[in-house]
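Tokens for Rac-like GTP-binding protein RAC13. Go.
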Amino acid sequence: MMASMAGGMDNAGRTGVRVVVLGEPGTGKSSLVVSVATETFSENVPPVVPPTRLPADYFPDRVPITIVDTPSSKEMSPNLVAELKQADVVVLTYACDKPATLERLSTYWLPELRRMEQVEVPVIVVGCKLDLRDELQQMSLEQVMSPIMQQFREIETCIECSALKQIQVPEVFYYAQKAVLHPTAPLFDQESQTLKPRCVRALKRIFILCDNDRDGSLSDTELNDFQVRCFNAPLQPSEIAGVKKVVQEKLPEGVNERGLTLTGFLFLHALFIERGRLETTWTVLRKFGYDNDIKLRKDLLPFSFKRALDQDGALRPLEIEDIFSTAPESPWAAYPYKDAAERNVFGGFSFEAFLSEWGLMAILDPVSSLANLIYLGYPGDPATALQITRRRSLDQKRQHTQRNVFQCYVFGPHSSGKSALLNALIGRTFSDEYSPTMNQRFAVNMVELAGVRIMKGARKTLIMREIPEDGVAKLLSDRESLAACDIAVFAHDSSDEKSWRRATELLVEVATHGENSGFDVPCLIVSAKDDLDPYTLAIQDSMRVSQDMGIEAPIPVSMKLGDLNNVYRRIINAAQNPHLSIPETEAGRNRKQYHKIVNRSLMFISETLLLYSGQVEVGRLSFPLPLSVMEFLSFFGIHPLQFVPGVYRILMGIGALNGICSINLGLNEVRSFYRVKLLNEGDKTLYLTWGDSFLNACPSDESLMMGDIERALSFSYRSWRTLLGVPSSSPRAPPPPSSQTTVNRGSQRVPPGSRRGEVARVEL
């Protein structure tokens, strides 16, 4: 009966087990390896046997074993240490006829294995040469090894064997393989003789998942379904009755009129382990997705809320602990989730707070969120539990977001009211006592939007993340630090001018970081402590900064008076419009204006130049020439480089900075543009050095002022003949083209295989 219940095995997905045989000289290591490989005893064995492989079908788990023999030595050599670091399990030998070798296990070998880094593997202690043991020895193996096993918990099994008599030789490596595939340590506490807490939690989760009718017991049908799921074989009615009888005899409360209780289910697995059938419990755990650490396997990670027994509308701490009793540990008992959500006077969660805490965990650690949903018995596909939304940059382009959970970074100087802003979100009373925040802190709650009380999606989850002033520099040192931020709030003490100045400095730092990294973020200013008198120029300063940076005016709030001024709703509204309230620094505005000019220039050129075959490179700038013009010039024998000075003027106009519509180049920069390279067909490359043609145009301050971009863009196509001509002040340039060399847009022919409207490029 018990054998049928414990049928089937699971090899934990392993493709092999590596066993290293270690021990004192003369203890029979090599003879043991040769004996298991050949099933015979050999008088002449080499000092060290080469690595030996036992095939997959040697043992029932069908996992091949590689046995590595080690040279006889009384100390650890570097090569031996290297082998041990690759081991899955260690077979540690002593000679039954040499008590000194047994003593060396506890005085040298086992302590030495503990000291070694990266060697945390189970140990099988093997007494070799059993046939030579003194017959007068009265102590049993258990009596001899029990003190050693209590001291060294890594010892999984102790066994005696004889290679000469072929006694228990295969069993040595069976237990070695078993120690890797079905270890005892994660499941059972040898000292207390009880299941370990994490094992109990995992088995409790499995019991709940199999209890389909949720009556707290496994009926005969549910027990049979469990057997089929785990071991691919049904139980006969007599076998089910036998299982319940065994449990009831040992533990009466393990069975009731409805079937096997949770207590009985746990006792049954403890009984399997006690009888050495660890593979049974491991098979069950692995069928339900657990790894050797009794945590859900990572490949499984792509609930009933009615668990409050008192039905008081809130989940008390003990009820929260009960919900997570099927997980390895309660995830909300420690930072950053502890005290992050609103609680009632008894420390319990409302339904909204419960959902808010899940929202916080999904944002901060989505993998852990999925794992815990599975631990709690999430019935659907885990991949559907979380929704991945668009990047904020796409939301900004579409001027809309699909998000229901928003993360708000709260910046501000010391004593600016940041913590009070978070406390009010989760319903905590205001305190005049100042306690500086040393580390980042989180607060989360649901915010109801105005005028949409009964509409679906009317409530959004707001996560506020307090950034201590001392931690801003470290945060912004990461280029992607604002990627997870949906909106930033800058709090300041409205009565303190220094607090205001520091808050605006932080605003500029964050805005600059967003502009440089590409993670622009909407920003709001919160004037805290509105119950105090503002400093003299507070209104003027706030209006100036708001207008200069293009964001809303500061939101006045007083947490002390309870005047929140709808600040959380306004934060949500700003986050829902990611294209608005984005601050602009002066450098950012200049950069945008520059890109705007470049884009306008490129549009002008792309509309004019349609087809290309040649390319002119000026320093680091390359400019394609129209095919029709190239052919036209070649027909009349005119060199294409006659176009370069005019093209250079256009390029310099495109490079205009800061809205001045001109560019100043020093002499060194001008020299970098002297050499003009014409890339023609094949490998033919022509160069032209312009010499002093530019230097002659330089004023006395050694800077070169190049043309007006607006004026350049105002040229019509018919003026290109003049625009591209060689200036008369350039003596070394080729002669200007003939007045007959004009390009008529209306009569331009498009060669076969070419397309109109191809985009012209200026590559830097």
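The first strand starts at residue 17 and ends at 23.
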